[in-house]
Design a protein that fits this description.
single chain, 147 residues, mainly alpha, 5 helices, elongated
Length: 147
């Protein structure tokens, strides 16, 4: 038997309405863009500390530089995927499209789930219904990405 999440809100009708879900997608998309900006800034900071082609150093510096370059690359790719996630919010095929995008980027799609949940917790709105709908939307997308 496959687990099917139940996000109905007992006693409050069928949960958030279409306008709440639209507001949630906008707020969650904005929060994902901020998460992506933080990752892009981290990637830029990592790239800035890489040695230049004329810098001399021992072999260990080359290995360290390779690790830093890989971390910068991963952060930049995750930022790009979060921007794509922000664009896809509210679409029926968002999970499938994100899975394909992560596969093309060579990153595990599960690596997006923590940023998605963090974005749902840091919404730039005081609209309670939109917050509830965004939490539901983030959980549904995380569930679809994990499955």
């Amino acid at each position: 038997m496959e687990y099917e999440p139940d996000f109905s809100i007992g006693g409050f009708g069928d949960g958030p309405g279409p306008e709440d879900r639209a507001n949630a997608a906008a707020a969650l998309g904005s929060a994902l863009v901020r998460e992506a900006a933080a990752l892009a800034q981290a990637a830029a900071g990592l790239r800035a500390c890489l040695p230049g082609p004329t810098d001399a150093g021992p072999l260990s510096d080359v290995r360290r530089a390779r690790a830093v370059a890989q971390a910068a690359s991963d952060a930049a790719m995750r930022a790009a995927l979060l921007l794509e996630a922000a664009d896809l919010l509210g679409q029926d095929d968002a999970a499938d499209r994100l899975k394909r995008a992560a596969e093309r980027a060579g990153l595990p799609v599960a690596s997006l789930i923590p940023a998605l949940r963090a974005a749902a917790l840091a919404l730039p709105t005081d609209d309670g219904s939109a917050r509830i709908a965004a939490s539901i939307m983030a959980q549904e997308l995380a569930f679809a990405l994990a499955g």
